[in-house]
Amino acid sequence: MNRLQNNAFTVGIDPGGLTNDYEIKILVCYILEKIKRHMTFSEINYILQSEGLANYFEYAEAISELLSSGHIVDISQGEGEQRFRLSDLGVKTARTFEKNIPLSVREKSMRAAEEYYLRQRIEKENQFKIEMVSDGYRLSLCISDIGSDLLNLSLFVPTEKECEQIKKRFLCDPTIFYRGIIALVTGDEHTVHTILQETLEE
């Protein structure tokens, strides 16, 4: 039983990730202090899981203990998902003990946070809609700008898998999508070749 419990609390952790609850609590405080914004339970969890920094169960327990100890405060007031801010105690803890967390873990957490919020902004500013039709799927893509939309495109795709592949590529960098289409319709073979090379190197 103990072995099964240990496996449950280490699954999903990459080499160099945290297994000590004390370190996980410091890392949560560190993320909240560095990001300088209120964050939901799932946002912090995404950062930890995307880089394999901590196990979900250990993270959930750390959040519970940080709430009990007064290091973080739930400001959701029971409406929707929990949203946390650091207390003065949490800020002091993050600044005092951040170097107890390996530098690689701190860097990965900040990189994951930057990527997460960049993706959120891209998804907010650029629309991607999947609609099922009789013989496949219709995709609607829109790249917004201050004035007129830069791109407003609808296309047919036969499978759901292809829809997800296109969505991932589009939201990863909508500007490449736009550049590629402009290059294709204007016959700019050099730009098309450059974009293909950039894509293959990722």
Figure out the total of helices.
9
Low-confidence stretches: 1-9
The sequence of SSEs as H and E is HHEHHEEHHEEEHHH
Spatial arrangement of strands, main beta sheet? 1-3-2
Task: Offer a concise description of the structure.
The protein has helices at 2-8, 21-35, 41-50, 56-69, 88-97, 103-125, 160-172, 174-186, 189-201; strands at 39-40, 72-74, 83-86, 126-133, 136-143, 151-157. It has 202 residues and is an alpha+beta fold. The longest helix has 23 residues, at 103-125.
Task: Give the arrangement of secondary structure elements.
Blueprint: H1 2-8, H2 21-35, E1 39-40, H3 41-50, H4 56-69, E2 72-74, E3 83-86, H5 88-97, H6 103-125, E4 126-133, E5 136-143, E6 151-157, H7 160-172, H8 174-186, H9 189-201
Antiparallel strand pairs: 1-3, 2-3, 4-5, 5-6
Helix pairs in contact: 2-4, 2-5, 2-6, 3-4, 3-6, 7-8, 8-9
Account of the protein in words:
- By secondary structure, the protein is α+β, with helices and mostly antiparallel strands.
- 58% of the residues lie in helices and 16% in strands.
- The strands form two sheets. The chain has a three-stranded antiparallel β-sheet with strand order 1-3-2.
- α2 crosses α5.
- The longest helix has 23 residues.
- It starts with a helix and ends with a helix.
- The N terminus is likely disordered.
